[in-house]
Design a protein that fits this description.
Layout (H helix, E strand, L loop, with lengths): L3 H34 L8 H11 L6 H11 L5 H22 L9 E2 L2 E2 L1 H4 L2 H20 L7 H15 L4 H10 L7 H26 L4 H28 L2 H4 L5 H4 L5 H24 L8 H12 L3
Helix pairs in contact: 1-3, 1-4, 1-14, 2-6, 3-4, 3-9, 4-6, 4-9, 7-9, 8-9, 9-10, 10-13, 10-14, 13-14
């Protein structure tokens, strides 16, 4: 008799191998798009552009960009258009990391195994690079090279702004800073991370549906998928902050505990946090049912976010 657990494990392992290949291929496309959109210059602003490129190119999992191009592929969007949206979300994500690492925020000297941007350059340049990356991200979406329809471009910009501003990522960062040294209840921790981390991941999944002019149901399902994946991703991050080494993470480990932050691990324990991440993964996979086999890599990604080691 077949062992169902063994069958699932084999399926997840096989899917993980295919996902790794697909992520690498799409990351190369996204990297090329970013390189093209952030050309180096030799003028008086060369240091700014160098810092923007340093913060954005040559590192990271490209998870958000991968979500954008992979969900767009469900609707046969051209790779060039999808790569532009992916590049914009990766630029905005990079800006958030540059600013998070500043001494006034998380004060971290390492990012992706290299000196953080303010350590490689200086604080003023890092602030300006983050500012410029944020505005460049919206400039890309506003271009008719991203989509011929002004309505689609406005929809992308509106959803992006909602996910990244005070009602999303930036608001989450503020709540996170205010929560240092205080014991937050689970509901508040969930809300904090839904804003700080989850909103941008949710948008990344939804952006492909916007770009592909999907039906309201298709868009809602991908938005729900992104919400669940974003929550699972943050829980996995909390687990890694407790269990992984700095070498594995490419950044300082154990900083949340040292800063007195409330985390899923602190509230649920490692086993409880892993169970909640697994529940969210199954929820995300259920959202993909109408897309059939075309969404297999997105299903694999839902497993990947809770099994990764960095």
């Amino acid at each position: 008799m077949t062992n169902p657990t063994h069958t699932l494990s084999s399926r997840v392992a096989e899917g993980g191998a295919l996902l790794k290949q697909d992520m690498a291929a799409r990351a190369a496309v996204i990297e090329s798009a970013i390189d093209h959109l952030l050309p180096p210059t030799t003028g008086g602003d060369a240091r700014l552009w160098d810092a923007m490129r340093y913060a954005t190119l040559g590192g990271g999992k490209r998870l958000r960009g991968y979500l954008a191009v992979t969900t767009a592929a469900l609707f046969d969007v051209s790779e060039t258009q999808a790569a532009r949206v992916a590049a914009s979300v990766e630029m905005l994500h990079a800006y958030s990391l540059v600013h998070d690492d500043l001494p006034a925020m998380d004060d971290d000297d390492m990012r992706r195994g290299q000196p953080s941007t303010h350590r490689k350059f200086d604080e003023a340049t890092a602030i300006l690079a983050g500012d410029a990356l944020q505005t460049k991200a919206f400039e890309i979406l506003a271009s008719n090279k991203t989509h011929a329809s002004a309505e689609v471009r406005i929809d992308l910009i509106a959803a992006f702004a909602d996910a990244s501003g005070a009602a999303g990522m930036v608001g989450g960062q503020m709540i996170d800073m205010e929560g240092e040294g205080r014991a937050l209840p689970l509901a508040e921790v969930s809300h904090l991370h839904a804003l700080k981390t989850g909103c941008l991941i949710r948008y990344s999944a939804e952006s492909g549906a916007i770009l592909g002019q999907a039906t309201p149901d298709q868009r809602a399902r991908l938005r729900s998928y992104g919400t669940a994946v974003g929550a699972a991703f943050q829980i996995a991050d909390d687990i890694l902050d407790t269990t992984a080494t700095a070498e594995e993470l490419g950044k300082t480990a154990g900083k949340d505990e040292a800063a007195g932050k409330s985390t899923f691990v602190a509230l649920l324990g490692i086993d409880g946090a892993r169970k909640e991440a697994a529940r969210l993964t199954e929820q995300a996979i259920a959202d993909l049912a109408p897309f059939g086999a075309r969404a297999d890599r997105l299903r694999d990604l839902a497993y990947y976010v809770i099994e990764r080691r960095n």
